[in-house]
Design a protein that fits this description.
This protein is of the alpha+beta class and 158 residues long. The chain has 3 helices and 8 strands, in the order αββαβαβββββ. α2 links the parallel β2 and β3. The longest helix is centred in the middle third of the chain and has 18 residues.
């Protein structure tokens, strides 16, 4: 992936998306079996709608074509990060306090590398998760290898 190209695309895309009350969650530019794909993930506190994706796709398609940054043929996809979105920054963890998450750590904590539970706290570079056995675990953000939302089936039907 060309990080300079993705950085330039992000610089163009962020102000456009923010006008619509959205934020750029992530940008990928990849070779896939169907060819080159530019995938832009958008997000907002109240959740992304299909209409949000359509509106942003139309605007960004025109703006990206006008800027002519990508010289080859590509497919533009605009979508939400989804129910199982990655949690990468302290801001992400704070936004999803009291949600069920799944975390993989780099170095074991209490002899474990995987945790699933309710995110109860995020401050001072660490998170606290209430595990499903009602124990709490404290994890430093710098020790997190991967974290995602992990909604329960019952959460999906609220």
């Amino acid at each position: 992936m060309n990080t300079d190209l993705v950085t330039r695309i992000k610089e163009i895309v962020e102000p456009i998306v923010s006008v619509k009350g959205l934020e750029v969650f992530d940008i990928e530019f990849k070779n896939e079996s169907s060819g080159k794909v530019l995938r832009i993930y958008i997000d907002k506190d109240t959740g992304v709608t299909i209409q949000d994706c359509e509106d942003v796709s139309i605007i960004l398609g025109a703006v990206l074509d006008a800027n002519d940054l990508i010289k080859e043929h590509y497919l533009l996809e605009v979508s939400s990060p989804g129910l199982y979105r990655k949690l990468r920054t302290e801001k992400d963890f704070i936004r999803y306090l009291n949600h069920r998450i799944k975390v993989k750590v780099k170095e074991p904590v209490n002899n474990q590398k995987f945790f699933v539970g309710k995110l109860t706290e995020c401050s001072d570079g660490k998170i606290i998760i209430l595990l499903e056995n009602n124990l709490k675990v404290e994890i430093l953000l710098e020790n997190i290898q991967k974290a995602n939302l992990a909604p329960d089936d019952k959460d999906l039907f609220k």
